[in-house]
DNA sequence: AATACAAAAGTAACAAAGTTGCAGTTGAGC
DNA sequence: GCTCAACTGCAACTTTGTTACTTTTGTATT
């Protein structure tokens, strides 16, 4: 039975990335996260002393390889979440809505909720779609 | 017949804001823009010597007053667009999709295209929605 | 039209987030 | 166990935006 570490190794090599301590830790952090994380949030969860520049470069190459995806936020920070198993550099299946809680600020990937399509005026060619909901999440509902 | 300047004056006073040179210029720039602008893009279009801090404060108060709205982007910059006539601090009618061109990078407000709703798992309470499409806009279509 | 006062502007210093260039290190295939 | 491109680490920097504080100004009132 494959351990969590095995899975990380496999994921990296499947995407043509080298096995390095930083990459394994970053991937671990994102895989364990229940919601999208910003660069500095990831940094805080990494082993102390991990270089910030290396982290940003790691995130960039992970994104290019289709390992993680950018999650849009209503503020000016970029957040990332681990892609579901089917993603690759060639084909991103990131067709789900995101939900941002205005209380805890967490952004959830609602993998089971697909983004509805819209009809656009002629001449607009759509390549990708992002749908971000904001409101109050399960955890932050006021007690009844 | 009301001039463009008259309209600016009226818009500011209707929202309880004072008439100042910076506010008039910022509002003018946003009203004239065909697409959403970032802080620094607005700064470039203002009269030379306009203070950057004042600009950011102006944007903040415009947003709070419902004169402009934040437009989410897939990058880490905040962009703003002038609200349509019906918005106020109390009621924002910002229920339209946005379209980002991957070639010219412009973000258009498609005021005529409403955001479709989705059904969420129980316990998620939705307050607002953002829908950002990406692709190629009218201007950037390859010649046929 | 002078006054008063809060709202807005200006100035300086700072902070967070992310990038670039370059030298050194290391994983992985031969 | 060599080789080399891929990756890391350091320094210095840029961009974007903020905070604290002082000065100026728009507007309502007399």
TrEMBL record, chains A, B:
Name of the protein: Transcriptional repressor
InterPro entries linked to this entry: FUR, WH-like_DNA-bd_sf, WH_DNA-bd_sf
Species this chain originates from: Hymenobacter terrestris
Gene3D superfamilies: Winged helix-like DNA-binding domain superfamily/Winged helix DNA-binding domain
């Amino acid at each position: 039975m494959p351990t969590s570490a095995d899975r990380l190794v496999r994921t990296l090599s499947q995407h043509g990335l080298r096995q390095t301590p930083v990459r394994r830790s970053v991937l671990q952090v994102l895989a364990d996260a229940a919601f999208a994380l910003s660069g500095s949030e990831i940094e805080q969860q990494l082993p102390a002393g991990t270089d910030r520049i290396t982290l940003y470069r790691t995130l960039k190459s992970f994104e290019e390889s289709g390992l993680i995806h950018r999650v849009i936020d209503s503020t000016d920070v970029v957040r990332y979440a681990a892609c579901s198993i089917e993603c690759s550099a060639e084909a991103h299946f990131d067709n789900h809505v995101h939900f941002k809680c205005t209380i805890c600020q967490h952004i959830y990937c609602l993998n089971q909720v697909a983004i509805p399509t819209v009809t656009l005026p002629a001449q607009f060619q759509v390549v990708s779609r992002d749908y971000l909901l904001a409101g109050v999440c399960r955890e932050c509902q006021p007690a009844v």
